[in-house]
Amino acid sequence: MTELQRSLELDPAIQTVEVKITAQVHDEEKVRRALERSGEKPEDRKVFFFDTPDLALFDAGIVLRARQISGDTDDSTVKLRPVEPTELSEAWKKTSGFEVEIDGVGDKMICSAKLSTDQKRGEIEAVAAGDRQIRKLFTATQEKLLEEHGPAGVTWEDLTVLGPVDVHKWKIEPRGFDEEVTAEEWTLPDGSDLIELSIKVDPKHADAASTEFMSFLDQHGFTTEGEQQTKTRAALTFFTGGEGFA
Questions:
Q1: Model confidence over 162-190: pLDDT tens digits?
Q2: Where are the alpha helices (DSSP H) in 71-166?
C-alpha cells in the first residue's frame, strides 16, 4: 500500500487530493516555453500572509492568507496544515466552505483543512497598507477555527503583513494527459521564483492519477526527483528575514 493510499484511509471527509511537484531550476525555462505554447493566459494574483515575526502561527500548523485575484473575487483563508482529519470535529466537517484535502508534495503526503471567505475589492489592499486591521479580513467562523487550533497567547495585534508574493497561475489541458494541470509561478520581491505543477483529483482515483502525472512529466523530459520546496514555507521564511526561493 502506498503512502497516498494509507493517507486516504484516514477519514472519508477528505474531499480532494492535490499532487504537486516543484520544477527544478534547470526545468523552469522548459516549463515557461510549454506554457507559452499552450496559448493560455495566466491569472495574476498577489498573495499576502499574516503571522508573527517569529512565525508562531506557521510553527503551530496555521496559515493565514489573503489573495488579490485579477478578474475574480479576492479571498482570505485560514488553513490548518498539517492536520489529523480524525481529530477534526464533525461540526467543522459539516461547516459550509470547510475543505479537507491531501497535499502530495514529492513523496510526502500531508493532510490539510481550510476555510475561506470572499473579500470585497480593495479590502486586502487596505490591510496591506496599514489602513485596516488584519482581523477585518476574517469572519467570526474563521476566527473560531483559529481560536480552536491556533497557539495560545498569540493575538491579532501580534500579527504582521508578510507579502506580497506575485503569482501567475495557468490552467492547461496538455495532450496525452487526462487531468487538468495547474501551473503557478511565485515571484518574491528579490526576484527569486518558484514554479509548481499540480493536479487536483478525486481521492478514489488519486493513486493512479499521481503515478500517471509523474510518468507524463518524465516522458516530456521534466525532472520529477530532487528536493521539493513548499511555496508557503519559503515565502514566509523570506519575509521574516531569510533567503528567497532556491
A1: 999 999 999 999 999 999 999 999 999 99
A2: 90-93, 123-128, 140-149
